């Protein structure tokens, strides 16, 4: 690389005014509100803070240009002296080049940071299942070996082959010394198109920050401090083997279902006779003596036990307090000076939490002078063990993240005259899945939570608007969204007329309007009686049967004549579904009915039959129980988690859909909890828990929506909480809901949609805000009989 070459600011580099960052993030930062944050998602370097002039200079690199040309153009536009500007900006531009924010125009690293392999691709005998994580130089995948052993695969990204070849070889050597203790065992080391890769044993687990957040929110002090002890034990064991990790941060600490700790990512580690292949680490956990060296632009030397002890103590602070040791500046040099010079400002918070003894241990481990720290992490562990008795940690309220703002925005859009009510909505205009009927249903449920008559009136308005659009050509289809009749059919509960009338009836039930309920149910029955060949929930008879179950639970169904029509229709649909699946061979042997997931396959068909049996006060048939058992045997277990392939003959699972409602584990949670409630067999409860773990721990590279994304997975965890009253599942649901609220803002399939956009996520946030009976809308019970 030559400094005279053209450089470019990659398209995925974001420059954001600090004042525009999320309020929750600003609370954790020092007062840098006048600056601009420069970040590249997936970069290994921290977000940088620059002033306004530097931010505008960086924007000059959105197209390829040399540094000299960019400075000349910028200076001319800003009426500045070009030579002075070049001198002033050279250091910060150099840092941006070092951090991979500015790259040479012809570099492969100029491409957006994204994975390059797809599910089903192969690395030798390994078959890729899904992408797990991607950063500037590395892609991480979940895969299976040829004999079915799950593994994690690190693959060098294009442009980083030389550096990563050394790091991955080094990591394999360190892991070999550990022999499967503390770190994962090495399974394979290889090359793919001249890109090195390393495969290690897969750990079905969550990272330390996620595990600690659960314990803090539940107010479970023994579990939280027990987690801290186990993490300290793992690092003490590592140091006892003369290995220093070199890259301490919460994502490199995994916690499995039993609480066992696995430390991962040893590319920067050292051992006796095995010097570090590179020096790095996350600045937030950097020891003061290393921060001083970086400020002085000198080599800090190899990692030391004392420096790593500081990093581990900083990690413990984050896990116990839920925040870092300092309110860090986004400007890197300022952050390093804070580490070098300032006493951590988190101790008062911990002392208020009645953890004074623990604070004493952490103060020593976080001493500025390495000599003042404990002699080893083992000694720190002994000190912490003696400090962990006493009163519990106060329960932390749910902070909602971006969720509350999302709820307010969605409710405003759906109720204010100057918003969607007047401007109209894009096709499809009427459906429950994506149109006005879905808006009505969300508002109905929010109104019932708040006891808000105005919201109930708005729900009624949207329900009638949906009905008025039924005959419109764009009521249920959209060429732009590839929602066409050939795919949707014309009898779907979620995508066609029957769903609109069902929502009208539910809203009428909420208003206790018997005549309106009868009228809507009669219209639903007429629409649902038309021939409907598909079985599936999404487009066929199983979805219509779920609609019957939902309406049967409303109070009006037991008194109105339309209730009898509804029962007759439900029995007819259940009989036709049962007859068709009875003719099929065993699920694993079938050639036609092979789809397994909730939206399109066996999980949805069986759930619909269980729901109808439940509302009718009957037990499911022996044939249904036999199919449940067949489906149970097709589970693929990984530690505490289980998932199912999307198809009976699929050799592998499909990326993040493995955790989703539509095709993955989240869709099995309502099935197995319903089976457990009706049949009382604890095997089904075990399967529900295992599916919930997959829904919780599934890939994070997922959309935010209900159908395929994080919100649908959060609803599954809420179902698990409702079924067993274990508050930890509610906490996990809220954690996923926070991520869903952030993700849906960035990447909605359709902004105003119940199942594919912000409306469904807003409903989720509202329902999880208090004691909840949250269930996936228009799928699970609405709670009318509660």
From TrEMBL:
Residues 117-399 form the Protein kinase domain. It comes from the Bacteria. One of its GO terms (biological process) is peptide modification. It holds the Pfam family LANC_like. GO terms for molecular function: ATP binding; metal ion binding; protein kinase activity. One of its GO terms (cellular component) is plasma membrane. Keywords: Metal-binding, Zinc. InterPro entries: 6hp_glycosidase-like_sf, Kinase-like_dom_sf, LANC-like, Prot_kinase_dom. Gene3D superfamilies: 1.50.10.10, Transferase(Phosphotransferase) domain 1 (1.10.510.10). PROSITE patterns: PROTEIN_KINASE_DOM (PS50011). The keyword Transferase does not apply. Zn(2+) binds at residues 662, 707. This is Protein kinase domain-containing protein. It comes from Kribbella pittospori.
């Amino acid at each position: 690389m030559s400094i005279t070459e053209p450089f470019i600011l990659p398209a995925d580099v974001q420059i954001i005014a600090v004042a525009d960052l999320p309020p929750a993030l600003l609370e954790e930062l020092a007062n840098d509100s006048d600056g601009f944050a420069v970040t590249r998602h997936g970069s290994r370097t921290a977000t940088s803070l620059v002033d306004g002039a530097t931010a505008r200079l960086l924007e000059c690199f959105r197209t390829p240009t040399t540094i000299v040309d960019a400075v000349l153009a910028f200076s001319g536009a800003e009426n500045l002296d070009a030579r002075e500007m070049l001198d002033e900006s050279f250091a910060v531009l150099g840092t941006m080049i070092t951090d991979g924010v500015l790259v040479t125009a012809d570099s492969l690293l100029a491409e957006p940071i994204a994975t390059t392999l797809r599910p089903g691709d192969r690395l030798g005998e390994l078959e890729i299942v899904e992408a797990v994580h991607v950063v500037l130089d590395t892609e991480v995948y979940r895969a299976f070996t040829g004999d079915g052993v799950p593994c994690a695969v690190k693959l060098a990204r294009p442009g980083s082959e030389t550096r990563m070849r050394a790091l991955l070889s080094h990591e394999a050597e360190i892991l070999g010394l550990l022999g499967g203790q503390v770190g994962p065992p090495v399974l394979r080391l290889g090359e793919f198109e001249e890109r090195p890769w390393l495969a290690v044993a897969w750990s079905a687990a969550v990272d330390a920050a996620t595990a600690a957040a659960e314990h803090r929110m539940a107010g479970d002090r023994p579990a939280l401090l027990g987690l801290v002890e186990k993490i300290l034990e793992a690092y003490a064991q590592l140091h006892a083997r003369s290995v220093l990790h070199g890259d301490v941060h919460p994502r490199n600490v995994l916690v499995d279902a039993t609480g066992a700790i696995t430390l991962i990512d040893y590319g920067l580690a050292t051992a006796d006779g095995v010097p570090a292949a590179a020096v790095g680490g996350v600045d937030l956990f950097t020891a003061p003596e290393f921060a001083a060296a970086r400020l002085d632009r000198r080599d800090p030397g190899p990692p030391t036990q004392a420096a790593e002890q500081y990093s581990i103590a900083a990690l413990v602070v984050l896990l116990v307090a839920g925040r870092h040791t300092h309110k860090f500046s986004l400007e890197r040099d300022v952050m390093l000076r804070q580490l070098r010079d300032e006493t951590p400002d988190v101790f008062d918070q911990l002392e208020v939490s009645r953890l004074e003894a623990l604070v004493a241990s952490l103060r020593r481990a976080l001493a500025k002078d390495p000599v003042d720290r404990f002699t080893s992490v083992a000694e720190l562990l002994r000190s912490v063990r003696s400090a962990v008795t006493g009163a519990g940690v106060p329960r932390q309220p749910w902070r909602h993240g971006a969720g509350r703002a999302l709820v307010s925005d969605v409710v405003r859009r759906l109720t204010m005259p100057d918003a969607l009510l007047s401007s109209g909505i894009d096709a499809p205009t009427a459906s429950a899945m994506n149109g006005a009927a879905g808006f009505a249903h969300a508002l109905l449920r929010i109104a019932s939570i708040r006891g808000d008559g105005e919201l109930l009136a708005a729900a009624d308005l949207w329900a009638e608007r949906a009905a008025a659009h039924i005959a419109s050509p764009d009521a249920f289809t959209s060429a732009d969204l590839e929602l066409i009749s050939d795919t949707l059919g014309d009898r779907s509960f979620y995508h066609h007329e029957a769903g609109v009338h069902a929502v009208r009836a539910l809203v009428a039930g909420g208003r206790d309007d018997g005549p309106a309920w009868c009228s809507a149910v009669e219209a639903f029955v007429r629409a649902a009686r038309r021939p409907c060949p598909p079985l599936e929930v999404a487009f066929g008879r199983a979805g219509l049967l779920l609609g019957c179950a939902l309406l049967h639970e409303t109070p009006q169904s037991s008194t109105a004549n339309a209730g009898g029509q509804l029962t007759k229709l439900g029995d007819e649909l259940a009989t036709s579904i049962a007859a068709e699946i009875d003719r099929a061979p065993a699920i694993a042997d079938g050639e036609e009915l092979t789809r397994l997931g909730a939206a399109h396959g066996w999980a949805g068909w069986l759930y619909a039959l269980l729901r109808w049996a439940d509302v009718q006060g009957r037990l499911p048939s022996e044939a249904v129980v036999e199919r449940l058992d067949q489906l149970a045997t097709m589970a693929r277990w990984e530690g505490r988690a289980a998932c199912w392939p999307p198809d009976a003959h699929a050799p592998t699972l499909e990326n993040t859909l493995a955790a989703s409602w539509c095709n993955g584990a989240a869709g099995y949670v309502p099935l197995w909890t319903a089976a457990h409630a009706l049949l009382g067999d604890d095997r089904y409860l075990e399967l529900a828990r295992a599916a919930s773990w997959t829904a919780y721990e599934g890939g994070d590279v997922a959309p935010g929506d209900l159908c395929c994304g994080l919100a649908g997975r959060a609803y599954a965890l809420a179902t698990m909480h409702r079924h067993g009253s274990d508050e930890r599942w509610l906490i996990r649901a809220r954690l996923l809901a926070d991520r869903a609220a952030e993700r849906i803002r960035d990447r909605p399939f359709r902004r105003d949609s119940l199942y594919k956009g912000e409306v469904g996520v807003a409903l989720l946030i509202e329902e999880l805000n208090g004691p909840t009976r949250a269930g996936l809308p228009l799928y699970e019970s609405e709670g009318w009989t509660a």
